[in-house]
## 1
Amino acid sequence: MRDWLHPFLVTLTLLDLWFVGITGTVSIWPLAPLFVLACASPLLRQLRRFALYRTGWNAGVLIVFAMLVQHASTTGLLHMLEDGMLLAVLCQVHLLNNVGRRQRPDLVFFNSFLIAFVTSFFAPTVSWSALFVIHALIFVPALQLNVLARSTENVDSHLARQLLRDSLPRTAWIGAVTAVVFVFCPRDFDHDGWLGNSFVQRAGFTTGLAEVINLDNNGATTLDDRVVMRIESTDAGLAEAPSHWRGIAFSYFDGQTWLPQEARRLGSRFATDPAWERHADGAWRTAARSTGQLLRVRVEDTALLQVPLPSTAAEMRPIGGAGLLFDPRSYGGFTFFRLDDAPSENLEYFVGCADSRRPHPVTQRARSIFLDVPRRGVTRRARQLLTAIQAELPTGQSTDPRTLARACEAWLRTNRKYRLPGAPGFAGSIESFALAHGGGHCEFFATLLALMLRQAEIPCRLIGGYLAQERAEDGAIIIRGKHAHAWVEALMPDNSWVTLDATPAAPVESVANADTTWWDSLTAEADELWNAIVGFDEQGRARLLGTLAATPGYLWRQGRQHPFSSAALLALPIALIYARFRKRRRPLAVASLLATARALGIALRTGETPRELLTRVRATDAPADKVSALAAAVREHELARYGAVEKSQ
Amino acid sequence: MRIRPTELGVKGTLLLAALVVAFLAAAYSNLFFLIIAFCVVLGVLGCWWAIGNGKAVTAKLSNPGPAAAGQRRTCSLVISPRRPAFDLTFAIEVASDAGSALSERHELTHVPALRDRQTVTVELPPLPRGVQRVTRVICGSRYPFGLVRSERDLAPAEPIELVTYPDPDTGGNRRQHLGAVDHAGNARRGDTIAGLREHRPGDSLGEMHWKATARRGTPIVKERERSSTATEFVTIDRRTESTAAFEVVLADATAKVLSAQDRERPLRLVSQDCRITLAPGGDPTPALRWLATAEPLPLSAPAPDPGRAEEVVHA
């Protein structure tokens, strides 16, 4: 008899290997033979009766375990977990090929679930979610088959098909109820846990603009989908709209953290960028001349109290700025304060840009701050990289600041990979990133570029802001929390600031490209959905519940606006439900018979026919009127079921 | 309805407990919560569906009729599902009439899948001499996930009585050892011999065809035409102190009853408090039921009134 459960166990094991594969923590070389051993399981199981075969497996597992323990003793907790995953999948294949039929399914089930669970920490991506859905689709029927395989040897193909058909709606129910629990179950979204920082450290890197940039956060990335800004054009369109919108400038770097550029840290009260002046019409202007094209900006998230502006901004005119106080900063941006009577939570303003950025004298003291580098290993590595880049430049150009800055920017774009924290291949630290031990995100690129420039005596700072890369259907630019970005501004000898963005353009452009395929759109939608799940919080729940609460009203309004199409849409499911209900509904005669029997206080026994019931009731001293009522119900029942009444009645 | 966790369920609960502890120990993570929610929902719905799976069927066990002690008997189990059900195990609980507190459970059958009404022939386990009652028909299931086992009692439509009469073969075997009872043949010497057949329990020694037995190497008796409707009498004197001897007597008497019924002869069973007459080819159950429940009497008890006894079986 065919063992129907085994293919499911093999599939679960292959999925486990895949789970570990997508984390990127185990290379393909140890995983590839495990894939082969799992696929060859139907053959290898035949060898289980040979002691030599079993001994070989046990010895292999022990040797790998010893190697991993030796490796773990020289690395940190994170690497121990990574090594543990390799061991877990090795044990899974071992279980599949060697353990007896009775114990094997339980062990494989539990180990498989644990692997899926642990890998969720390392790769909380949409790929993981897709794998987990497949895992659930295999896991549930495997459990069902396991139940029958334990009770009977005769699980034939017909029975297996019946089980599989039965498992699909059950899996769907489990998924639906889990979703409901996930949304509605009350919980503390901010709890730190008993173990505190040891887990917190890995627990979150949320994209967004921050007042301080910490480079030591290597937890799982949460892409914030909330809309932060909306940019519209007042006239000619947004084709020429600036891509980089400055938020905060960071000047001081201690090797791990970037601190904002402030006058007290610069040691100078003079601004490093053209000053803003307030005019009588309420607008703020610099000495540069605006081109005349105005962009209308609406800032939805004003938590940081920053006014994002392009580097070429020459005019900023608040819209309905009552209750807001604007404070121009030394780096050419604004912060603002909200008075208690401010009418709106949002911030709206017009921005006018100049053709180019005007030079502005920077004090020597400020320059020295922009050249300051920490005494860390990463600085030395940046120096080595700089030397190599300079060596590749033609003679004479290696000392030209502008050329050198662009060369460094281009080199980083080409020679380092873009990876988000928590994703496979993420470097984990700026030192590892400099050594090319992994990829990094925009802050890593900007930091390494800044260090290289400062080593080359080119003053520079890091800018935190937003990258405009998403268009709404109406053509407006939408900026979300996940579009937060970091880049570098370098000060040239002529006191002009040059924007340098070393982050590879590929990931940005792929999102920004409007000519996307259906697959791109699908994966983008899946990413958005998954990010909404991973980043679900109290506010998200409130929004969802608000949407759900508003849905009936919305449907009612739609129904009133489009009565015919709404009625047609409503009639279809009602007809389907009615057809199903009618199919299942108990015939009236049967319901009447049962009701009459209930009134008599007698229940129909298992297997008893209505006529037998009547005979039994007649044998008792039941009231005559009730007996006659039961007889009538039995007659009706027989008429309904058989079309005639037996003569004997 | 009873629910108890299986081995897999206990292990799964421990795993879930470990996950919950880890969840509380670590900083909040939506993914972690989602996995725990999945586990909990799987377990809760598994229990719910296991209960529903057991509730989806009704079953009716037919009365299997009398059987000899130590022998299996078959009966039919009619199972009707309200909706498709899987992995159903049926069992019965049997209590003796004397002490119903001591009920024993016997597995009947396992039905992997059930879509329509199905009749299953089941074999009841061997039972000792006596009259037992089927107190419960139990339907159990671990489906769908094997995390819990649900059991539901299906009350029999009408009380099922299991009459287990003495094993006539056992009596014959023991009689060889005991040799304490006088057996006179029940067959009429004057009847015409119709042929020969193999010996059956209850056949008289006087009817043995010794030459044919010697030739064939197996006990052969003479088969006679029924030329008489004379009633056979079996009188049992239950006064004895030897339980073993009493059982042998009952076994012999059972053999006589079965033989008489087989040969369609009338029979009268007489004892201290019993006087049962079986018509030719009639239902022997009253006699067998009495034999199943008969108990020895003290020696001081009065002797039975044999009436016109052709055979008296002394206990």
## 2
Amino acid sequence: MTTAISIAGLVKDFGRGARALDHLDLEVRTGEVHGFLGPNGAGKTTTIRVLLGLLRADAGRAEILGGEPWRDAVALHRRLAYVPGEVNLWPNLTGGEVIDLLGDLRGGIDARRRDRLLDRFQLDPAKRIRAYSKGNRQKVALVAAFSSDVELYLLDEPTSGLDPLMEGVFQDVVRELRAAGRSILLSSHILSEVEALCDRVTIIRDGRAAESGTFDELRHLTRTSVVVDTAEPPASVIGWPGVHDAHVRGGHAEFSVDPDELNHVLAHLVGLQVRSMVTSPPTLEELFKRHYGAETAVRS
Amino acid sequence: MNGFAGTARLVRLALRRDRIVLPAWILGMAGFLAATTAMFAEQYARHPALLVPDTRIVVENPGMRVLGLVTGAHVGGYALHRDALTLAVLAAVMSMLAVVRHTRQAEELGREEMLRAGVTGRYASPAAAVTVAFGANLVLALLLGAAMVAAGQPVGGSMAGGASIALVGVAFTGVAAVASQLSSTTRGAIGLSGAVLGLAFLLAALGNMLGTVAPDALRVTSAWPAWLSPIGWGQQMRPFADNLWWPAALAVPAMLLLFGVAVLLLGRRDVGRGVWPERRGAAHASAALRSPTGLVWRQQRGTLLGWSVGLLGFGAVFGALSEEIKGLEGEAAEWYATFGSGGGLLGAYWTSMMQIAGTAVAVYVVTLLLRLHQDESRGTIEPLLGAAVSRLHWLRAYAINALAGAAGLLLLFAVAMGVAGGQVSGGRMSLVGDLAGAALVQLPAVCLLGAAVVVLIMAMPRRPAGASWAIVVFTVVTGPMFGPSLNLPTWLLNLSPFNHVPNVPAEEAAAGPLLGLALGALVLSVAGAALLRRRDLVLPA
């Protein structure tokens, strides 16, 4: 089997015309870390809940680890671990109890692995859930999931509330899991995290896959950002074909260029006597702006 | 004083937040008192000769004195005796919840931090909470008094009666203020206040049981423990007889003293923590916790313990009353006789007690099953079903806990009643076995009601609670306790499962109705499970 998750044409309606998923396609290959990027309300959590058999698809096909998520939920859940986006746990249990409970319900827990993870995430297992901060509650969910050695990890915005140090620990663990051949679906709206960890990415917008591929494949669809200082005033830049969002002040210009016009633009710039120039690959921030437009606020 | 800066503003905030809940408590209690007082007034207007003997039963039986005092033969006093303990407990709980909501819970949820970051004194929140709870109890006293006046009782006794109940709320306003300082959690503060309430009940009950009965058997002078309890203070007001007001005045200094203690404690602790730090728990889950059934057990074992204590106590009281029932005459005897004649008056009495226990246990089962809905609406079901737990496994965990809990509670009640009843009738231990059987006969009806609630939770996942309680109220009102006296049509009475329970031990148990009820429960359970398998879970966003 080469696909861990395969979704085609998935539709989920919540009634009253609220369509959460609108013919979504998503493929996660076995052994890859797949980024699932989108703003709040795009349908990431709904997709994962369908994959877990918590919600029933209205149309389309969803397959996870070769099984049907609604019908085979229990058998499939022995082979996967899940970190919910909103961690709702039992306030009167301790973190350690929750980790053991969830691990056991999944079919067993590796005690050594659990203790090592508690240590790495610096989590006190004897405190009650209600006494933990939001970040520590998130850590309980992460340790509970990572304590199980399973084929697939479904992580729904798993780092919300973690401090940068703990985010580093999280990234180390994910890289170790990938090295061990595990598959991971990482839903996020944090661009740097996805960029740092993911082999491939699917961008979801309004319940539809807007784009999917490796970063290289997505990059060729986007523009290059250019910041340049020239001896001749670069005012003419604004009219060149392939140039967008140009701002010119004196001998300074900032703009972006369509990839197929880049060579032309460079040739023109040379004629303006370039003094300094910085070009940068588009960040995921720009990918988002391109897909959602400036009017959609991107929380980060 | 600076420490109280902003109190007035916080009082307004608390009133705004409680504008539904406090009026609902107060009006509910007043409505209950008005209805029951009117019922007793009408009953004794028809049979005035019964008032004196009925009062003597209450005065002379130590078990009945657990519930309170009656002084002199007066309809108002007799009605108040039936309701006072329930209402006093409700007044205390209303006050405790209000105070904890605006102090410890506000701290636990981080709201106190926001308030105290503004121009708000250290003591403003508890001061506002106590002010609001005290005000609510003043209104409660007036409305309870008005309720009894509306039911035709004299003004002086009615007002004293209202005050005798509200003063318990006033005292527990202070108790909760201290508990909120001591405990680090909302649950802990409520639990601690509840424990003090239990102690107050025991002291009053003990004082009354150990009291001396006057020669005319219409008055009890309580022993000293009754004076240690706010519930006892209310009873010593002796509404409709002495109408003493000074015991009521004890409650206000008690509340102020306790509030002073709370202020002192508050000056010595950090925001967000109690004087008692939260205990550390287990770092590992015990073997008993590691299954859905164990998890459900863990979540509700405290509630079950509370129900167990309550049913044990009432079983013992009602068992001890058995001997008195034999001597009953007139209307009360007729009422009990409607439950069957095979076992005589006593058998009918035991049957009716088992029906009351069955109803109470059904309420417990419904509160437990509504946790199914809370698992969904609060999202705790997501990590559970995200692990390898099926929906049916989850439902089964609740069913096992409900069935075992209901059977355990019924047996506990029957054993307590059998032991106490056997004692007063000269060591007849066979009664325990008879009553245990009679109690378990209630189980199929309880299961049927529980299964109906499961169907509701699965069919209307967003708001099942209202409809669930509606069918509980319906089955109780149409059930054997009230149904026959309401002159309802037969088809309506047939809808209540409790009307199909054989009248054991007054009559022999018939297998047919029990199997029918069990089959109904099974069919509804299967329907609930089928609905659950088909639908989406309703999870928080």
